[in-house]
Amino acid sequence: MSVLLETSLGDLVIDLEVDACPKTCQNFLKLCKVYYYNLNAFFNVSKDFLAQSGDPTATGTGGESIWSLIASQQGKQEPRYFSPEFIPHLKHKAKGTVSMAVAPSVEGQGEGGCGSQFFVTLADEIDYLDGKHAVFGHVVEGLDTLDKLNDIFVDQEGRPLKDVRIRHVEILDDPFEDPLGLVVPESIPTRPPDNSTRIAEDEDPLATLPEEEAEAERRKQAARASALTLEMVGDLPFANVRPPENVLFVCKLNPATRDEDLELIFSRFGSIMSCQVIRDKKTGDSLQYAFIEFDKREDAEQAYFKMQNVLIDERRIWVDFSQSVARLNGGWSNNPKMGPRPARGGRGHGGGGFGGVDDLEPTRRYREGYGADGGRYGMVFDVPDDRHSKRRSQSKERMVRRDLSRERRRRSRSPQPRDRGRDGVRDNRGRRRSHSRDGRSRERYERDRRR
């Protein structure tokens, strides 16, 4: 009576001792029948000693017998383990001996015994396991698979760094009847029962991609890191932001082309939400490119195909889809005439906060002139308006007045040259003094001096 274990390292054919260990073999076969061992990991591998599996949790503390499993499915109580069958002539002599792991009895948790965990020996003459664990089979095919399992790299706890799993179990012969209440699942498990973070059993950690694919992957990772950096400094609302599909970028414009002219030309393709020629922040001169936002993506696509290399104001323009995401947070410039557009939904159009998140606000390190909503910012090149010019002129006028007032106060406090007249000394303000410094009159002062 045999069972085929298809592992990630190769196949193992196990011949069972059904006559000597009927209960142990029945438990093992029925667990195989309900796919209990499928995708189980070998969680304990010791070189030249043993390889242990059969625990769905891959911790060494899980697993139960088939009778306990059936009872738990029916909501009944059944002992987790059954008594081991120790057969004197079945010993751990040869490599490939299959034995059930016997759990010790724990006070307060019932008696120990055999559940679902089993192990395969990886060396000969391991006689100190005799009488401690119950032998019930031997590996008759797949000794080379055991050699691979013996040479695998493990951590300090004996867990392989790269998962070794039982992919599938095939019962070659089963002489036992099914226990009452046994239900075979309709489908084979496709996900491992444990949450492993190890190298996957079908993953090659040393595999390298072709140079072109590796370069593409490096660029993708670099772009992802750059996008995350731009999100942190506030230039992007969120790292995986996507450029709008209804906005066109038009360049090579004539400096004389105005917003309304461009909007009139492109409006024949559909409704335009906004059209603006970007201008220099200081001079107001056209930078010869513009952004045009359509209401529908189909209209933008039609304008893209129809307006390529079209002559406008004696200049052949170039049209492409915009890659800028500034529109997700505000206008193309902080032109006060445009004003903030209402949110149109989506994560990038949030009304409060920043980037659609209520408890965030944008950085103000590189941008000034934020809108009143607090979550929008403009382009580097702003369009000056009369209100700002008037405000600057008023500010300069106040500064001139303040400087004149300071100068007058300074002069009033500083000493002036004294102008002596025919009748005495003038004061600092040019007025004639009729008294001496101690308050006496001029005549009395002369009289006292002659005396």
Automatic annotation (TrEMBL):
<dbReference type="InterPro" id="IPR035979">
    <property type="entry name" value="RBD_domain_sf"/>
</dbReference>
<feature type="compositionally biased region" description="Acidic residues">
    <location>
        <begin position="201"/>
        <end position="214"/>
    </location>
</feature>
<dbReference type="InterPro" id="IPR029000">
    <property type="entry name" value="Cyclophilin-like_dom_sf"/>
</dbReference>
<feature type="compositionally biased region" description="Basic and acidic residues">
    <location>
        <begin position="436"/>
        <end position="451"/>
    </location>
</feature>
<comment type="function">
    <text>PPIases accelerate the folding of proteins. It catalyzes the cis-trans isomerization of proline imidic peptide bonds in oligopeptides.</text>
</comment>
<dbReference type="InterPro" id="IPR035542">
    <property type="entry name" value="CRIP"/>
</dbReference>
<feature type="compositionally biased region" description="Basic and acidic residues">
    <location>
        <begin position="384"/>
        <end position="406"/>
    </location>
</feature>
<dbReference type="GO" id="GO:0003755">
    <property type="term" value="F:peptidyl-prolyl cis-trans isomerase activity"/>
</dbReference>
<feature type="region of interest" description="Disordered">
    <location>
        <begin position="330"/>
        <end position="451"/>
    </location>
</feature>
<dbReference type="InterPro" id="IPR012677">
    <property type="entry name" value="Nucleotide-bd_a/b_plait_sf"/>
</dbReference>
<feature type="compositionally biased region" description="Basic and acidic residues">
    <location>
        <begin position="361"/>
        <end position="370"/>
    </location>
</feature>
<keyword id="KW-0539">Nucleus</keyword>
<comment type="similarity">
    <text>Belongs to the cyclophilin-type PPIase family. PPIL4 subfamily.</text>
</comment>
<dbReference type="GO" id="GO:0005634">
    <property type="term" value="C:nucleus"/>
</dbReference>
<feature type="domain" description="PPIase cyclophilin-type">
    <location>
        <begin position="6"/>
        <end position="171"/>
    </location>
</feature>
<protein>
    <recommendedName>
        <fullName>Peptidyl-prolyl cis-trans isomerase</fullName>
        <ecNumber>5.2.1.8</ecNumber>
    </recommendedName>
</protein>
<feature type="region of interest" description="Disordered">
    <location>
        <begin position="185"/>
        <end position="214"/>
    </location>
</feature>
<keyword id="KW-0413">Isomerase</keyword>
<dbReference type="GO" id="GO:0003723">
    <property type="term" value="F:RNA binding"/>
</dbReference>
<dbReference type="InterPro" id="IPR035538">
    <property type="entry name" value="Cyclophilin_PPIL4"/>
</dbReference>
<dbReference type="InterPro" id="IPR002130">
    <property type="entry name" value="Cyclophilin-type_PPIase_dom"/>
</dbReference>
<feature type="compositionally biased region" description="Basic and acidic residues">
    <location>
        <begin position="416"/>
        <end position="428"/>
    </location>
</feature>
<dbReference type="Pfam" id="PF00160">
    <property type="entry name" value="Pro_isomerase"/>
</dbReference>
<feature type="domain" description="RRM">
    <location>
        <begin position="246"/>
        <end position="324"/>
    </location>
</feature>
<keyword id="KW-0697">Rotamase</keyword>
<dbReference type="Pfam" id="PF00076">
    <property type="entry name" value="RRM_1"/>
</dbReference>
<keyword id="KW-0694">RNA-binding</keyword>
<dbReference type="InterPro" id="IPR000504">
    <property type="entry name" value="RRM_dom"/>
</dbReference>
